[in-house]
Amino acid sequence: MPLHNRKPPRVSEGVTFEEFAMARLPSLLRYAVVLTGDRDLAQDVVQEVLARAQVRWRRISESDVPEAYVRRMVLNEYLSWRRSWQFRNVHAVGERLIDLDDARGGSRDHADGVVEADALWSRLSTLGRKQRAVLVLRYYEQMEDEAIADVLGCAPATVRSHASRALKTLRLSSERQERIHAEEKS
User: Fold this and answer.
1) CB 3.0–4.6 Å: which of 31, 131, 148, 158 could bond 154 by disulfide?
2) Per-residue pLDDT at 13
3) Domain CATH for 72
4) Which whole-number Å values give the CA distances from 2 to 6, 23, 24, 76, 100, in the listed order?
5) What is the pLDDT of residues 117-151, one digit of tens each?
6) Residue 96 resides in a domain
7) Tally of domains in the chain
8) Could you write out the three-class secondary structure of the chain?
9) Burial of 48 (0-12, 13-18, 19+ CB in 10 A)
């Protein structure tokens, strides 16, 4: 079972912030990388969130699932990020996507996988933050539309609308790239 599909373990009372951060940091970073498409920005987002979570740890640790609370903080930080990161180049994290594919039993040429992952990241970088967040929550976090709506503070119909528009944008971008590739071959 892929790591991102597992339910986060329930944190028992008495777990310190340091223990939580050490145990969940890799998972939080992977989540932030998928959201942002940029390892450096993901690290900045997670660092900012963990700094705020440490101050609020007593209250966070009393929640039913502290990791879900912190993941929501990561999502909110990503959605409200003040830097003009959308103008930055989104760096491919192809190896990570290839690792996920290999974990699912894929056996493809590594170079093809990196090229496809790079193309995917390029297309994802054209989406708005909410559209991208909806796709990450739906397909990476495996959340239902109602849960996504709760996290984003909107109606489930808005989630479906964001997803529909994002997928349409990705399809159009993919078709455009295929046409360009076909023209280059001829």
Assistant:
1) 158
2) 59
3) 1.10.1740.10
4) 7, 17, 15, 24, 8
5) 777 777 888 888 899 899 889 988 888 999 999 98
6) no
7) 1
8) CCHHHCCCCCCCCCCCHHHHHHHHHHHHHHHHHHHHCCHHHHHHHHHHHHHHHHHCHHHHHCCCCHHHHHHHHHHHHHHCCCCCHHHCCCCCCHHHHHHHHHHCCCCCCHHHHHHHHHHHHHHHCCCCHHHHHHHHHHHHCCCCHHHHHHHHCCCHHHHHHHHHHHHHHHHHHHHHHHHHHHHHHC
9) middle
Among residues 33, 73, 26, 23, which one has the least CA distance to residue 53? 73
Whether the CB-CB separation of 96 and 30 falls below 8 Å is answered with yes
* Residue in the block written with tokens 């930055």: 88
Give the model's confidence band at 109: pLDDT under 50 very low, under 70 low, under 90 confident, else very high.
Answer: low
What pLDDT, on the 0 to 100 scale, is given for residue 185? 67
Residue type, 17: F
- The domain of 47 spans 1-88
Per-residue pLDDT at 80 exceeds 70:
yes
